[in-house]
Amino acid sequence: MNLRTATEIGKCLSNQTRMQIMEWLKAPEKHFPPHETLKHFNDGVCVTYIQEKTGLSQSTISTYLSNMEKCGLLISTRHGKWSYFKRNEKVIRQFINFLN
């Protein structure tokens, strides 16, 4: 990981709601119901559930998640009209190693 990438990740994490999302996605089964169609968390959590839990607007959460994906913290998967997000553990480990 280089300094530029680490700085972008730091910017993404400089918001309490984004930090909460990262924490919730660490153990999604404790914080979210499985989507009624998929019945699992292999591809992450449906954006709708994340938005509902934060209480913020759909556009705000979409912007947050998009920025977190761009800096590598999240991985998105689409199933039909639904988008799912999960943590990118590889990049998170690289970020932690860079900070150490």
TrEMBL record:
Residues 1-100 form the HTH arsR-type domain. Pfam families: HTH_5 (PF01022). InterPro entries: ArsR-like_HTH, HTH_ArsR_DNA-bd_dom, HTH_MetalResp_TranReg, WH-like_DNA-bd_sf, WH_DNA-bd_sf. Keywords: DNA-binding, Transcription, Transcription regulation. PROSITE patterns: HTH_ARSR_2. GO terms for molecular function: DNA binding; DNA-binding transcription factor activity. This is Transcriptional regulator.
